[in-house]
From TrEMBL:
Single GO molecular function: dipeptide transmembrane transporter activity
UniProt keyword annotation of Transferase present: no
Presence of keyword S-adenosyl-L-methionine: no
Pfam name, any one: BPD_transp_1
Listed name of the protein: ABC transporter permease subunit
Length: 355
């Protein structure tokens, strides 16, 4: 190798290292900026709403000097910039204060209820992906046909129908009338005091412990709210799958594959869908994040003891520490999933690595 070739290789290596360093720096700046923005929004929401945290703790009939002493203990008498500094410091250490409703540290409550929300959102996302992707492929392949119109109408209903109305209707039909599913909640009361969860995911915990009766009971409780959330996930995933597949089916490599005599099934499922699957990862990840933050009404309707129901009960009792703490956790998870999907997209699609 000549000196010129060695110099050129060294420059290329430095250029790649510099590009990687800049990409990592941009990623870190994005994470920090987004998280600080989330903290700023929740902080100012907590200061703008007409609820006094001190009164929520001591009650409306407490003497003025007691209220003032509690305000000093909470730091509410400090300037806003100092309050924000302590708010960010505590949030970074996972200290969201004490819940007025449960008298427990908010982070302990979140650790207890968040697995239920994640399990429900996971079931909904699996349901949405299993049915949404094939329906989207079918709609794209049969573009303009009756099948395409039916899939689009199903998706439109998923976007349009209020989830609380559909949840109540499904309870009346599948629980009250047909008795196909269990009553609202997460487990029958007979298992609540005999079953010891490990991870907080009841389906998984009951399986690894070999408690099949608990597994089927947990399944009968989660299937209806999970399918309900999955239907809304299905509407989004099927629409995006159809759009991605229509774009892929118009590409030149599809024409070349047909010219080579490949079967239509192989072309659709092994070529077009594989390429469309790269952006679909982002779609499914965002759908999962959306179910995590959008399951408040579903958990309320089905008495599901997750983070959504916890935030709702806390808001009704003016427990702002719990409300803001839960909001920060949901927002942080949404940011993390969004960034993770972006990293996966860049990893799986080489065309995006140089951007």
């Amino acid at each position: 190798m000549t000196l010129t070739d060695t110099t050129a290789a060294t420059r290329r290596k430095r250029s790649r290292s510099s590009s990687t360093g800049k990409a990592v720096l941009r990623f870190l700046v994005t994470v920090v900026t987004t998280f600080l923005g989330l903290l700023a929004v929740t902080f100012f929401i907590g200061r703008v709403i007409p609820i006094d945290p001190a009164l929520a703790i001591v009650g409306d009939r407490a003497p003025a000097h007691v209220v003032e002493r509690v305000r000093e203990q909470l730091g509410l008498n400090l300037p806003l910039y100092q309050q924000f500094y302590f708010y960010v410091r505590d949030a970074l250490t996972g200290n969201f204060g004490t819940s007025v409703l449960t008298t427990n540290p908010v982070m302990d409550d979140i650790r207890r209820v968040f697995p239920a929300t994640m399990e429900l959102a996971t079931v909904g996302t699996v349901f949405g992906a299993l049915f949404g992707i094939p329906l989207g492929v079918l709609a794209a392949v049969k573009r303009g046909s009756i099948a395409d119109q039916i899939v689009r109408v199903v998706g439109l209903i998923g976007y349009s129908v209020p989830i609380f109305w559909l949840g109540l209707l499904s309870l009346v039909l599948f629980y009250a009338k047909l008795r196909w599913v269990a009553y609202p909640g997460r487990l029958d009361i007979v298992y609540e005091y005999t079953f010891t969860p490990i991870t907080g995911f009841f389906l998984f915990d009951s399986l690894i412990q070999g408690q099949w009766d608990v597994f089927w009971d947990a399944f009968r409780h989660i299937i209806l709210p999970g399918a309900l959330l999955g239907y809304f996930s299905l509407a989004y995933i099927s629409r995006m799958t159809r759009s991605f597949m229509l774009n892929e089916l118009q590409q030149e490599y599809i024409v070349a594959a047909r010219a080579k005599g490949l079967s239509e099934t192989r072309i659709i499922w092994f070529h077009a869908l594989r390429n469309a699957g790269v952006p679909l990862i982002t779609v499914i990840a965002l759908s999962y994040a959306g179910l995590l933050e959008g399951s408040v009404l579903t958990e309320t309707i089905f008495s599901w003891p997750g983070l959504g129901l916890y935030i709702t009960n806390s808001l009704q009792n003016a427990d702002m520490n719990a409300v803001l703490g839960g909001t920060i956790i949901v927002g942080s998870v949404f940011i993390a999933i969004n960034l993770l999907s972006d990293l996966l997209y860049r990893t799986l699609d080489p065309r995006t690595r140089s951007r």
